[in-house]
Design a protein that fits this description.
The protein is α/β, with parallel strands linked by helices. It contains ten helices and ten strands. The longest helix has 18 residues, at 182-199. It is globular.
């Protein structure tokens, strides 16, 4: 589905600042992949490039990033926006900076829907939206709300719902539980896992919290200073970490046994 080969990513034109240096990885179908590492390790930069969002001055200076999706064939990252909100969707952090404050949630869910998901008539589409939200534990009343009328956790759950409603083959979730309390974090993680199981698609979850990855991911990618230093099955990495950076990260986590299965 996604193939990254020797990718060099960074920002700036005259003075290029490297954020990701020579990364290679593959993301397949029907799996939950975690990307972990400290702040500044290049996680979010890599996700934006895979998504094809170069609006922030991000540049691919070397290597390649390609995605292959049914109906689109193989796309370079520069063409990935052709598949946005259809084959691939994105859950960013910071809901208030993403959701339109002047638009009700219903309209934000409907805007940009691919033709295959547009139902005849507003009433039919509203009924379908309500059924979808109910499946995620969200009340239909959120459709009539403006973002500022919802809590931070609810807004983040709405972002997850917006990303999932198009039934994409790939969801990229960039720190979706940052700055939320543990109860809300669990609800959002449960949403993401339920969506992945229902759609049998691929979820890429970016988080600096290894405990989150331990709970829900199948495979884990560890990034450090812009490079991938270790990758493999999550269970194997936690039971036998090879890189000293990975060892330090895992060593700093208490009570891992108690976390396993907390989100299921």
């Amino acid at each position: 589905m996604i193939s990254v080969r020797d990718a060099v990513l960074g920002y700036g034109t005259r003075s290029f600042i490297t954020a990701v240096n020579g990364v290679s990885l593959d993301i397949g179908s029907n799996e939950i992949v975690g990307v972990a590492g400290e702040s500044g390790s290049g996680k979010s930069t890599l996700m934006r490039a895979i998504y094809g969002d170069f609006s922030t001055g991000l540049r691919l200076k070397g290597g390649s990033i390609r995605g292959t999706f049914e109906g689109y064939g193989t796309l370079d990252c520069s063409d990935m926006r052709r598949a946005w909100w259809d084959a691939v969707s994105y859950v960013p952090q910071g809901s208030m900076s993403v959701l339109n404050p002047l638009m009700k949630v219903e309209k934000q869910l409907l805007d940009g829907l691919p033709k295959r998901q547009r139902l005849a008539g507003r009433a039919a589409q509203r009924q379908d939206l309500e059924k979808f939200l109910a499946g995620l534990g969200l009340d239909a009343s959120v459709l009539d709300a403006y973002p500022h009328q919802l809590s931070g956790g609810m807004r983040q759950r709405v972002l997850v719902a917006i990303a999932a409603y198009v039934s994409p083959k790939l969801i990229l979730a960039d720190e979706p539980t940052t700055a939320l309390d543990v109860v809300v974090q669990k609800r959002i993680l449960l949403m993401l896992v339920e969506i992945q199981r229902r759609l049998q698609n691929t979820l890429v979850l970016v988080s600096h919290d290894l405990g989150v990855h331990y709970q829900i991911t199948d495979r884990l990618v560890i990034m450090y200073r812009g490079e991938v230093v270790e990758t493999g099955a999550t269970d194997e990495i936690f039971s036998n970490p090879q890189h000293d950076y990975t060892q330090r990260l895992i060593g700093a986590l208490p009570d891992l046994a108690a976390r396993r299965g907390a989100v299921s």
